[in-house]
Predict the 3D structure of the following.
Amino acid sequence: MSVNGTEIVIRAGRGPEEYAALVEIWRSAVRATHDFLDESDFARIESHLASDYFPAVTLTVAEMDGKPVGFAGVHDDGLEMLFVSDSVRGQGVGSALLAEVVTTQAVSKVDVNEQNHGARAFYLNRGFVPVGRSELDGDGRPYPILHLELHDKA
């Protein structure tokens, strides 16, 4: 897939050697899309990315011009994380990552912050439907979560 003449390459994650670059992508994406997130929660999550969260998932990375610009993390059939650098947001990187993990890793579920309207619309527009809601996030914090499942893989 290419965007404005630049090819998006989707590949397997390379492990700890690229975690720093993925944290930078996460930081860029979250700063642009998670304005509801308390600063202390932002710092807490960031401090656990490389040590706890990345090793717990299968990482898939999107590159443009040889540089990582987005990534997805999958555990079982759940998409645990999908982040795209703000500099390329809206250019098809997230769609390419999602299509890849749905096809190759049988992703059929995702949880999304209810307050992240862009992400919610992104998944709903790609065939995911709400199947539940939790008032608190997985860490017991007051960030409501929508549970979505993919009902149309076509």
